[in-house]
Specification:
Shape: elongated
Largest sheet: none
Protein name: RNA polymerase ECF-type sigma factor
Number of helices: 8
Radius of gyration: 23 Å
CATH class of the largest domain: Mainly Alpha
Keywords: DNA-binding, Sigma factor, Transcription, Transcription regulation
Oligomer: single chain
CATH architecture of the largest domain: Orthogonal Bundle
Distance between the termini: 44 Å
Order of helices and strands: HHHHHHHH
Family: Belongs to the sigma-70 factor family. ECF subfamily.
Number of domains: 2
CATH topology of the largest domain: Rna Polymerase Sigma Factor, Chain: A
GO molecular function: DNA binding; sigma factor activity
Helix content: 55-70%
GO biological process, one term: DNA-templated transcription initiation
Strand content: under 5%
Length: 218
């Protein structure tokens, strides 16, 4: 499927970004015409993203993927209209809007992929292995892995442990996890941040990490 960047597409655009904003807030024919043009831009974005991630939906037909792209374009259009006042002109309007389509399609595909999947949580944390480990590195890695597992079990709350393992170990998309738990992305990011901060403090206290500046824990 060919991909057309919004900046080089054949979609007719107003000469200035300000015109987009003016037209999209118009209640008359100009507004309807601008909305149709906007949806064309968004549909290009959603089609591109849906087809880029199609391997996550192995059972989906071309028609089902197209339906998903169309629905995502509708959702993205509503999102763009809601956030129109936040457009600051740091990029072209079509580039700014295009990102909404990409985001909505990505979230929708991952949500579909996990719709009927459980979220399995491992009993142990698997750390990335060195491709060419020395005996000392193997020993140090095993010791650190045990320390991390102990810290997760000992120092995190059950909720923090669940969020950390789901997002970091099992790579569950955060939008999917938020939906399953009736939570929000921001709330899960905050929980993950707090969990990592606790882990770092625990590993430092037990001599497994040196004390050094860490921007992620501030």
């Amino acid at each position: 499927m060919s991909t057309v960047h919004p900046a080089t597409s054949g979609v007719a655009r107003p000469q200035a970004d300000e015109q987009w904003q003016a037209d999209l807030t118009d209640d008359g024919p100009a507004g309807r015409h601008a909305l149709a043009r906007l949806r064309e831009v968004l549909l290009r974005a959603t089609r591109h993203q849906v087809w880029r991630l199609r391997d996550l939906l192995p059972g989906a037909s071309a028609g089902e993927l197209e339906d998903l792209a169309q629905q995502c374009a509708d959702d993205a259009a509503l999102d763009v209209l809601r956030k129109l006042p936040t457009f600051e002109g740091r990029s072209r309007f079509t580039t700014w809007a295009y990102k909404f389509g990409v985001h909505h399609a990505g979230v929708a595909v991952r949500r579909q992929a996990w719709r009927h999947r459980e979220i399995p949580l491992p009993d142990a944390v698997a750390l990335a292995a060195d491709r060419a480990p020395t005996p000392d590195a193997v020993l140090a890695g095993a010791e650190l892995a045990r320390a991390v597992e102990s810290a997760i079990a000992r120092d995190l709350t059950p909720h923090q442990r669940y969020i950390l393992l789901a997002l970091v170990v099992e790579q569950v998309p955060i939008d999917v996890l938020a939906e399953r738990l009736g939570s929000t992305r921001n709330a899960l990011y905050k929980t993950l941040h707090d969990a990592r901060k606790r882990l770092r403090a625990s590993l430092i206290d037990h001599g497994h990490l040196d004390i050094s500046p860490d921007r992620s824990t501030r």
